[in-house]
Write a structure and sequence with these properties.
The two termini are 29 Å apart. With 159 residues, the protein is of the alpha+beta class. The strands form two sheets. It has a six-stranded antiparallel β-sheet, with helices on one face. Strands 4-7 form a two-stranded antiparallel ribbon.
Length: 159
């Protein structure tokens, strides 16, 4: 499939999906050549999206379906090297999307989450394990993206 995700500026985006939804699309949809759809100067206005997009790999080593239902939502995890990326998108009313982290394997992981916030996209980080589930409240037609890397003392970013 060919798909050009992550549009933030009009007229390309009609305001239907949230910023969190848009930032998750390059993870959720796999394309032979992922080309982000907006102008480079637009991404500068969305620093948390730009942070995530700078870390996206050119290929995936592994993919896992974590949940979803056609036409309602999709939660996908993809691995590149020793990092995992999670993308979640929803259609319809606000709700909580869940990403069970069992795919991570043993040990502790730093999970950096990019999601919709009151003033735009926000990025938070926390240490989690494979026994936990990442649960994120999303707005109407919302979504989120996350990056997970193995945690070690004083690690604050997967950057």
């Amino acid at each position: 499939m060919d798909y050009t995700p992550a549009t933030f500026s009009p007229p390309f985006r009609q305001g239907v999906t949230s910023d969190g939804h848009e930032v998750a699309l390059p993870i959720v949809y796999e394309s032979g050549l992922t080309h982000l759809a907006d102008r480079p100067e637009t991404y500068v206005e969305y620093p948390e999206a730009e942070w995530l997009f700078d870390r996206l790999p050119t290929t995936w080593d592994d993919s896992e379906l974590l949940g979803g239902y056609p036409g309602r939502d999709a939660v996908i995890a993809r691995r590149a090297g020793d990092r995992w990326f999670v993308g979640a998108i929803a259609s319809g009313n606000p709700r909580t999307l869940s990403a069970p982290l069992a795919f991570l394997g043993g040990g502790r992981w730093l999970v950096e989450l990019v999601r919709d916030g009151a003033g735009g996209l926000v990025r938070t980080a926390r240490v989690m394990t494979a026994r936990e589930t990442l649960q994120v409240a999303v707005p109407t037609h919302g979504g989120f993206a996350a990056v997970a890397c193995r945690w070690r003392a004083r690690l604050r970013t997967c950057g």
